[in-house]
Amino acid sequence: MRFFSDNAATVHPAVMEALAAANHVDTAYDGDALSQSLDRTFSDLFETSCEVVWVSTGTAANSIILAHFVRPWQGILCHEEAHIEVDECGAPTFYSGGAKLMPLPGRGAKIDIEALKTRLAGIRKDVHQVQPAAISITNATEYGLSWEPGEVGAIGEVAKAEGLKLHMDGARFANAVAYRGCSPADVTWRAGVDALSFGFTKNGAMMAEAIVFFGGSGGAGVRELKKRGGHLLSKGRFVAAQICAMLKDDLWLANARAANAGAAALAEACGDRLMHPVEANELFVRLTAAEAAQLRAAGFDFYDWGEGAARLVVSWDQDAATVAPLAAAIAAL
Amino acid sequence: MRFFSDNAATVHPAVMEALAAANHVDTAYDGDALSQSLDRTFSDLFETSCEVVWVSTGTAANSIILAHFVRPWQGILCHEEAHIEVDECGAPTFYSGGAKLMPLPGRGAKIDIEALKTRLAGIRKDVHQVQPAAISITNATEYGLSWEPGEVGAIGEVAKAEGLKLHMDGARFANAVAYRGCSPADVTWRAGVDALSFGFTKNGAMMAEAIVFFGGSGGAGVRELKKRGGHLLSKGRFVAAQICAMLKDDLWLANARAANAGAAALAEACGDRLMHPVEANELFVRLTAAEAAQLRAAGFDFYDWGEGAARLVVSWDQDAATVAPLAAAIAAL
Amino acid sequence: MRFFSDNAATVHPAVMEALAAANHVDTAYDGDALSQSLDRTFSDLFETSCEVVWVSTGTAANSIILAHFVRPWQGILCHEEAHIEVDECGAPTFYSGGAKLMPLPGRGAKIDIEALKTRLAGIRKDVHQVQPAAISITNATEYGLSWEPGEVGAIGEVAKAEGLKLHMDGARFANAVAYRGCSPADVTWRAGVDALSFGFTKNGAMMAEAIVFFGGSGGAGVRELKKRGGHLLSKGRFVAAQICAMLKDDLWLANARAANAGAAALAEACGDRLMHPVEANELFVRLTAAEAAQLRAAGFDFYDWGEGAARLVVSWDQDAATVAPLAAAIAAL
Amino acid sequence: MRFFSDNAATVHPAVMEALAAANHVDTAYDGDALSQSLDRTFSDLFETSCEVVWVSTGTAANSIILAHFVRPWQGILCHEEAHIEVDECGAPTFYSGGAKLMPLPGRGAKIDIEALKTRLAGIRKDVHQVQPAAISITNATEYGLSWEPGEVGAIGEVAKAEGLKLHMDGARFANAVAYRGCSPADVTWRAGVDALSFGFTKNGAMMAEAIVFFGGSGGAGVRELKKRGGHLLSKGRFVAAQICAMLKDDLWLANARAANAGAAALAEACGDRLMHPVEANELFVRLTAAEAAQLRAAGFDFYDWGEGAARLVVSWDQDAATVAPLAAAIAAL
Predict the structure, then answer these.
(1) I need a labelling partner for B66 at 20 to 30 A (CA). Which of A207, A280, C259, D261 fits?
(2) Residue D246 and residue D208 in contact, taking contact as beta carbons nearer than 8 Å
(3) What residues in B contact C129, CB-CB < 8 Å?
(4) CATH assignment at residue B20
């Protein structure tokens, strides 16, 4: 049974149906009706004017936004375990033409606000030192923590005071919002976020992520970055269709709630093994090598997370009922 | 009726079925069974050992191959109307970290071999001038010409003599091969081609192109370029599945033959209007503004190609029968 | 006797004295009094507010200005024989993070204004095609032609109408201005030039070029490009000192006039051999291989310029008198 | 009295004389006799075959070497306070096309060997994580520590075992070697260093640094990186002349010994105030704001180094005698 990644999960039937429904002739690239509908749909969802650009991976979404926000000689403040820092083969630096990631510490992969301020204060304002132009936070974080609107707001205030853009990597934004039960607006633009990578692939789509700029247009250059990166699919309506399907009737929320519920059920079984609170669909648990082997022998698949620890991810197509066997197996260790 | 682009065509039912069939759990990224099968499948097709990397756009395929073949301070010789030169927003320069495209003339968008030799002879071998490291040709060309194996071989010999890599942009490789009736090997590696961008999207897939390195491994760095460009889809099996479906029972050839047949039928109707021989699925025809308006009024959709000319593209889902109305309309002009 | 390049010329005694005079303690980098004086000095010379940044090579000057004017996905229109296109190993593309040089024809290496307009009209305004953001012209041109203010103004009007920045590569700006006898302002900002690479090295300095932005500040980012390119010399006062010495008492004009006078004297001897009018310090002359060999045997050193032609450059430290032997030798051929 | 930077020091008279002596006609760029002599001169000094490329700044030297050693998607391990990490505006990332600096801790700005091994062990060997390709160390370090040959050797062994290139930033290499009294070879290639940025500017030159590749040629591409970066000065003999003058009769060692002696004399006066051992020409001393103000009032100029600390740099043109007033002033605090 799979718990190693929501990247390996299936595609939701509604998304498959949407792909079939999109299989008729329409304009190429992103001139089709589905692509053209996204600005309006997201503007409704986020209760503000949005500019939306679809891409097929989260790495592309993060990189294009960040490249749009910083110049090659500037920097991007992020958590030292952020996906953009450790898992994207340097993509944001590639897209931005050389921008420097400036890693910061913080519990559960949330940037520590004091560390952020200290770092900013320590940068000499001259041409010798790289000057940051953006902050990037991840919601839910690499350790499955969901940001409270107030926490994002605190980062947003620093960003505003320093003239920095604020980006949110929302590869698991749905899980984070589902957990908080807040409005998507509260944890994004109302808290100072300028742009969001809104992920759908892990949550039931096939290859579909939305770059969302809040407050109208993101400005010139974004679509050039996308085209130049080879991300303007010629039959782009098939990406837009996935996003539309995920937003329809709040499928994105329903899927995230299912996964979160599975994670919560597992969390109960894990008890003291938990290394972080479970606020989305990921669990980080203490597990000896012997215990891990025992679970694997019983058919459960997951990642080791360094020595004596493991990561368990519950996907949208799993829920409390389907995770019961693993919960039982862990409880029985 | 659509004749403006094969990019706007539908997806073949067999590809849709393959996507549905791939909708079960498997490893993320490109570790799945379908992705892993590609090297063998293409090696069979091309009668030599191949390394294959899937991507979702032709721009990504071209750019990754070229970036792999040249260093940032080197150049890429190509036709002055090549897609990489005029239609990719500088993507090959972006991916390569700055390589210079070196455009050459030639009829029907085939590089003129004498112009190639003259250009090469004119470059001083010093650090002031950009030294080319690759040649890129397109098959079928931007004007729908299909290369004969011997013509490719002539370019291949120059490439070999000068120590240059030879890339073939095969966005419409299927149409070119279908027209020539040759072995895919004859017009690629046997003629000196080092790597091919083998396009499937225009020919019935949804978003699937294969980077094919001939003669074993393409070497270190290709997969890093792909990941860094944001092209390593997390549910990559859905791209590999499309390619597998297109190769199964030579669907790629059948689709291309259908489109070519439609183009041939149209060509007959166009007679003297043709600006180039029709050797694939594209026609470039002389058409006055009034004639173009008349055809559009009759429901036919196509691109103007400068003044007094138009481009007509027949897609895989159109054939001789379905193009009959346009053929008749043109004949009646 | 040297006629192969003004790059090989000596350094003027006044520059050597200025270096010696600068050999005392002052602030590092460009905080010293000499560096700080440049804005004012050039503002006086150009009769408008200027921001000036010193660098040590013309390639750095051109590249930093152009990188400042264009984004990586944009283009730079220039003559097909411009130094930035053929002799800088791709430096402007490197500094700009990938901008495309868009070469244009034109007699004597002056951009043909009609070719410029045609090229601009032919670019589709979409994300597929690279959109130009700057025009770069060279004065004196690669063939030693000096621009008339009105000619520059015609280019400047196109630039303004299209929203493009206009850059002038002035590696031999002194020779061009000396020939025209015009005000430096007339042939630059008054004609629409936004920034000038003002060269001093060929004209008597050791390694000193000025980036000149007209109309106040060049804007944010220039100094970062310079630092990031490794061009912020720690003992920068020694570059600024050269520039100050060259500007003092119009030494730059005196040197250029000497070289131009030498070139004019040679031109008279060359008669029908001249391939271009001589409007600066370079001559391009028809010369058979046998004639070239004969001159070389007589001790004259120069570059072949393709078959049957040669380039003769007169340097600041040569004048009408010193070129007399070559003039006589050519006349005697 | 200046103690704020050796970048502000004067140029040694022998260097000024060498510049005057080089002021005759010779080939442009780096084809002149002085430039051509460098390989041999450095090969003698380092007791092995060397390829040497002159540049005018340390940032250029570091960046070109590192860009030559790593591909854009790879990383460079360095100390978290290394000049390349904190003081070059991202130049190594710029020149390399995007390589990631991977900072490590360590006392006195020497990379901690255990931290290095731990970091290397923690990197997954996949395309998601940036793989390092080089290690860069600084000698003398940012805190004025000089490496023992054995310490370098320990890093060199790790580099060799992991297939990484080892670069030494020797902006103050002369001071480090002078302190150790070792052979230049012992602390470089014999200890595993592949290339050295050998700095002369801080030590009495005007703008001259040598890129030194040990063991024959550095390989293809270095000179293209230099040209492309705008660092191939057209009158390059004036940089080569400075280097030749610095190497003649071991002027580089004499100058470094003078500066080191001055630093040692100051160190004695500083006693317990010293934050690091003084092994070159820099001192880092505890100093209250009041004490700093008192020294400045007495005419001594230096940098604050965070709160309660200061950096004092002794230059080649200062020695034990000339630093006596500051020594006395500190002793009297």
Answers:
(1) A207
(2) yes
(3) 86-87, 89
(4) 3.40.640.10
